[in-house]
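Quick one - inputs below.
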Amino acid sequence: MSLLQSCPNVNSKPLFLQPAVPDALRLEQALSLLSQSGQGQLAGAEGSMPWLQSLIDALCDLSSRDGLTGLANRRNFENAIARESDRVARSGEPALLLMVDIDHFKRINDHHGHVAGDLVIKAVADALNATVRPMDLVARIGGEEFAIILPNCPPAFGSAVAERIRARVEGQVIALVSGQPLGCTISIGGAYAPQWVRSTPSVWMERADLQLYRAKSEGRNRTCLEPTPVSVVSAEEKGLLFASSIFGEDLS
Amino acid sequence: MNTTTAPRAVAGRRARITAITSGKGGVGKTFLSANLAAALARQGEKVLVLDADLGLANLDVVLNLFPKITLHDVFTGKNTLDQAILEAPGGFSVLLAGSGMVEYSRLTPEVREQLVSVVQQVVPRFDRILLDTGAGISDVVLYTVSLADEVLIVATPEPTSLTDAYATIKVLATTQGRRDIRVLVNQVSKPGEGRVIRGQLQQVVDRFVSPGLEVPVKLEFVGEVPIDPSVRDAVKRRQLLLECLPGSAAAQAVIAAATRLRA
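Output:
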């Protein structure tokens, strides 16, 4: 039975919306949250099924977005990366994960204040959004940390994509409230999803994080993608591997 | 022998899946898989060895079993899984790839689906599944290993084997997030050599692989199997070492390794 059939239209409002009715839905807070976030426009007549559906859709959307930047939030990102790593494991299609971190963000906050910090975060978010394809997911996963999932991104293009994002942020000038121009840079680490392998999103993220760490320690404002293939054993590694006396005669 | 007495599914039973891999071929991986299975079976486990070396299977040769129905027939839908699971001489079950699996040596979506489906079906019916993978670090091998709960690397003291074992460990640690990898050293020429080799691998892993990983990679020593003429005898006779020469030093070493594998 539909919700509406049970609610005869009295006082032009459905019964389930009337505050005097004991079991009425309490939607005031949801509606005010939506209007506050600029999503107050709902489809259909108040109390109609399409209206309720659009209310639920708007709430879902709200709960999956980051309030400051409008990007996907961490929860949304975690769902998306789990889906994507499952998909790659089955399809073998290459997918790239980029971890992005604003360089010296604490310094920006300390020197220019939190309002400026927020402006920088928003500007970086916009730049990321503007440089990727519509199918890619850009998320804010922490204070000054972002992640981008790029499905079906061939390995040959990975570095170019990451570099384009980095260059875009570096080239942009942010106007502070004071009118003072401010620039910022980002570091990017990236790794491809393990193809055809049952893996976990956390392993994928750890690999991309490791590359981000490398980009930071190599001086920031740069991109580092996981080198392939990882199965190559360097001369240095071999040297240590055979350092023991038991190989004394075997190797010369 | 050659009867289809595959155990039924038991509520709550979930096999521990151990992938046995080596990087380099010819280190005795399949021989050890079969004999470890026999040792585990003696210790009370219901064991299945799945011949996952789809392109170049030779578990059938080691066990002297040449069944009419193989994994190939299961993949093509000609036979059921039950018909393909055989009782091996050592008191464990086997699923043999058989010849004619060459078309499965590449990791197509079909091969992936089939492998997962077979593994899912056998998991509730055994205590332990040994996945005998092919040599190398191909995508089929890596995929097979990714289906396992734990990995056992077989290496020999030879530098080429050691290099390939290390490369395998590195790939598994970085791409699959493996942090506990077991090491079994075959063909050691003096007692203690296996431990030295594990230590050597661990040292290189500590230096080149673990930095940057949140949790370091730990190599667990499972055992060492000495060079022993009885191994060659058993292989020539196409019998399990544990069946024909159970008192030999190599057989005893395999039994000890099985015990550590269960810990």
